[in-house]
Design goal:
The complex is a heterodimer of chains A (393) and B (137). Chain A is of the alpha/beta class and 393 residues long. Helices cover 32% and strands 17% of the residues of chain A. Chain A is built from 14 helices and eleven strands. In chain A, strands 1-7-4-2-3 form a five-stranded mixed beta sheet. A four-stranded mixed beta sheet of chain A has the order 8-11-10-9. Chain A has a two-stranded antiparallel ribbon with strand order 5-6. Chain B contains one helix and eight strands. The longest helix of chain B has 5 residues, at 15-19. The termini of chain B are far apart. Classes of the chains: A alpha/beta (393), B mainly beta (137). The A-B interface holds A 128, 131-132, 134, 136-139, 143-152, 154-156, 158-163, 166, 207-213, 258, 260-261, 263, 265 and B 3-9, 14, 39-40, 65-72, 74-76, 78, 82, 84-86, 94, 96-100, 111, 122, 125, 127. Bound molecules: zinc ion (ZN). Chain B: GO terms for molecular function: DNA binding. Chain B: Residues 57-120 form the ChsH2 C-terminal OB-fold domain. Chain B: InterPro entries: ChsH2_C (IPR002878), ChsH2_Znr (IPR022002), NA-bd_OB-fold (IPR012340), Thioester_dehydratase-like (IPR052513).
Chain lengths: 393, 137
């Protein structure tokens, strides 16, 4: 099957310093990530002819996305044939999916894709103000939640996780393994923001944010930027990194696209996205060597274990078990850099960076053994879900 | 100690939902052609494609399909813990309302619990809240 995503490849990756408080601006971090990715791909600024990001410049004081394409394009003086940011996509990977379309349409050959977050600094200054501006009323889809003191994703998305617990019967100590696994891997990743090991006791001692979520189930707001270069596969063959194509994408929206009316509470919007992805490849879940599964919350990762088909519906708890299966040396290593829970909240782009790191054998102390060739990647959050497979040739 | 509820901007479609409480009514848009309840209100029935819709007073009875007890104090004067829930209307299970469950201890709220609407006036709006249905009623 010759789906067009197979004609695209990630050719370079870059990442700024990730921290709980940056010593440079959000734009400065974005420049660091972008220049590193361009150089890693063996390219020059003048080779980049496309740019994409998610969700674009918001500059709303939250730090969620302070840098959009205009600022970075002008800072780097890149001349592009095509550029796009759009947040109404299949999760945060929408920028990648859009870039696949642009490359397939011949609009661009090397697309610089980036995601910048500045939430650590924002939360030290303007976060509470951003949550609630007295007298200012709420527009759009979140008007149905806002009056109920839903100030953070953790409170709102806990509704999905509570439903998942209700239907699956997963045990808290099984959920905890996602956090413990992430921290163990982060200990081997010098770039991770939290590297001190945590125990099961530490997990149960961490405060409850909104049941069933504990603090250690929630990812860590950071300042940082990640960039990748997505290229036409013909061009990728002439570049230094191993040819690593997008094998298949899942980008559909076949549920009610609503945070309140989502008709798949326990699974969120993931099952049909994964189904689409598997329909576009001859690979199967058993072919995946490393899985970088979105962990904005630990429950997202748990959902993805099932929705990717690594285990059956509502059996992720037993699949996780004592954590050995998902560990670095296990049969399905997940979130090998520590994930968002410990390496920092790079909103799935950290996971893309890590997948390439593993497929290109650059993992050093955390390198997955056995020459991994196929990686599974995902994003999540209520109705939003997107996923893809990366395959090194 | 409290934090004012962040209130919605209402429009032609949504105003009935946020103001029906002035008359003690939970108003959900209903198709006059096939009686399907449309929420959020859009003025279009996705079942029969009719544009003939109007706010309709439902019973206000519902079941909790998910709930969470928020413990984190997101702002200085925010009273915690409190319960955020999604409830499904008795009349039509695919109408889900986000709400707070009030007038009970947070730890007593559970999925499957039967609840009944009540309203809390905030400025010019009446925010629908839900409380457990008292036994025997
Ligand atoms: Zn109708």
């Amino acid at each position: 099957m010759n789906y067009p995503e197979k004609q695209t490849a990630i050719t370079g990756i870059g990442q700024s310093k990730i921290s709980r408080g940056a010593d440079k601006s959000a734009l400065g971090l974005s420049i660091d990530a972008a220049m590193q990715a361009i150089a890693d791909a063996g390219l020059k600024r003048s080779d980049i002819d496309g740019m994409a990001t998610w969700p674009g410049d918001r500059s709303d004081g939250s730090g969620f996305s302070d840098v959009g394409i205009p600022a970075l394009q002008d800072a780097l003086r890149i001349e592009v044939n095509w550029y796009s940011n759009c947040s109404e996509t299949a999760g945060q990977f929408g920028a990648i999916f859009n870039a696949i379309g642009a490359i397939s349409a011949g609009l661009a050959r090397h697309v610089l894709i980036f995601r910048t977050m500045y939430e650590a600094t924002a939360r030290k200054t303007a976060f509470a103000n951003a949550l609630n501006v007295p007298g200012q009323r709420v527009r759009g889809g979140f008007q149905w939640y806002a009056p109920y003191h839903t100030y953070a994703a953790s409170t709102q998305q806990a509704l999905y996780f509570a439903r998942y617990v209700h239907e699956s019967g997963i045990k808290p100590e099984q959920v905890a393994r996602i956090a413990l696994n992430g921290r163990r891997n982060a200990g081997l990743n010098p770039a991770a923001v939290y590297r001190t090991p945590i125990t099961m006791d530490d997990y149960f001692a961490s405060p409850i944010i909104s049941t069933p979520l504990r603090l250690f189930d929630c990812d860590v707001p950071i300042d940082g930027s990640t960039a990748i270069i997505l290229s036409h596969i013909d061009a990728a063959r002439d570049l230094p990194n191993p040819v690593t194509r997008i094998e298949a994408v899942g980008s559909n929206m076949r549920y009610r696209n609503s945070w309140t009316q989502l008709d798949a509470l326990a699974t969120q919007g993931q099952p049909k996205v994964a189904e689409m992805m598997w329909n576009r490849t001859d690979l199967t879940p058993g072919d995946v060597d490393v899985a970088e599964l979105y962990d904005g919350f630990s429950y997202h990762t748990i959902n993805w274990l099932e929705n990717f088909g690594f285990c059956k519906r509502f059996e992720a708890g037993d699949f996780i078990g004592d954590g050995s299966r998902i560990a670095l040396e296990g049969e399905l290593p997940i979130n090998t850099n520590g994930g968002a829970l410990s390496a920092g909240r790079m909103h799935a782009y950290g996971q893309v960076h890590e997948a390439c790191t593993q497929l290109w054998g650059r993992g050093d102390a955390r390198q997955v053994k056995g020459d991994p060739r196929v990686a599974a990647l995902s994003t999540a959050g209520g109705p939003l879900a997107g996923c893809f497979l990366l395959a090194r040739e | 100690m409290s934090v004012p509820r962040p209130l919605p901007v209402t429009d032609r479609d949504s105003a009935a939902y946020w103001t029906g409480g002035a008359n003690g009514q939970l108003l959900i848009e209903r198709c006059n052609g096939c009686a399907y309840l449309i929420h959020p209100p859009t003025g279009f029935c996705p079942v029969c494609e009719s544009r003939d819709t109007a706010p309709h007073a439902v019973s206000g009875r519902a079941s909790i399909i998910s709930c969470t007890v928020n413990h984190k104090q997101w702002m200085p004067d925010l009273p915690v813990p409190y319960v955020l829930a999604l409830v499904a209307l008795d009349e039509q299970a695919d109408v889900l309302l986000a709400t707070n469950i009030v007038d009970c201890a947070p730890e007593t709220v559970f999925i499957g619990m039967k609840v009944q609407v009540r309203f809390e006036q905030n400025e010019d709006l009446w925010v629908p809240l839900f409380a457990p249905v008292e036994s025997g009623k």
